[in-house]
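Lecture notes, continued. The same structure-token format from the folding unit now serves as the input rather than the output. Read the line below as a description of shape only.
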């Protein structure tokens, strides 16, 4: 049994930080110690920001993005092309594409990829709502911007099958996105080039 090094409040802070992607137990301890040392400049404002996020952040019922309004700012932006829809696995992928500023369009977040081994089937993803959006008739092109992984490509094929018969063009990101790569880790230039040279799926 490991020896307790601090009070339960600090231990809880460390345990919660350790659950954040990219932070293990050691990094969480360092982060917690830094926050505590900078209590007034960091810890208090961070606690306030997190409390506000818990209260105000919503998942957009239209596209699956996270924002403080529903529908989100992207969905209600009249300057965006309503005829083109980029389909992504997760909100982090949407944010990565927005950083690239390659296209001024709308998005649809699937909420993951098909993975039968993990118990994730079509009903666990936002595929039905995607088909409903496309069936409305306003969308002319769907760009599948999924990760170049086995699960991502399987999901892309499934989505393409579900959209078959609708009067739309289905495209996917072109080469330039490395096989096995994830969108959130790519540089803006690679993402922009991949979007501009997309190919039929």
């Amino acid at each position: 049994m490991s020896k307790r090094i601090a009070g339960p409040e600090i231990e809880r802070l460390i345990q919660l930080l350790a659950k954040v992607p990219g932070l293990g137990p050691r990094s969480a301890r360092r982060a917690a110690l830094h926050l505590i040392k900078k209590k007034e400049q960091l810890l208090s404002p961070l606690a306030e920001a997190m409390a506000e996020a818990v209260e105000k952040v919503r998942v957009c019922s239209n596209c699956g993005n996270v924002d403080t309004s529903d529908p989100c700012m992207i969905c209600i932006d009249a300057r965006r092309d309503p005829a083109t829809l980029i389909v992504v696995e997760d909100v982090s992928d949407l944010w990565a594409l927005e950083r690239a500023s390659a296209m001024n369009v709308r998005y649809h977040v699937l909420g993951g990829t098909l993975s039968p081994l993990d118990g994730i089937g079509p009903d666990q993803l936002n595929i039905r709502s995607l088909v409903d959006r496309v069936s409305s008739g306003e969308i002319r092109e769907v760009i599948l911007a999924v990760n170049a992984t086995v699960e991502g490509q399987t999901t892309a094929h499934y989505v393409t099958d579900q959209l078959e018969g609708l009067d739309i063009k289905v495209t996917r990101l072109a080469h330039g996105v490395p096989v096995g790569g994830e969108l959130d880790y790519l540089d803006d230039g690679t993402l922009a080039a991949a979007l501009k040279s997309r190919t039929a799926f």
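Point for the exam: The beta strands are 58-59, 66-67, 81-88, 105-109, 141-144, 169-172, 199-200.
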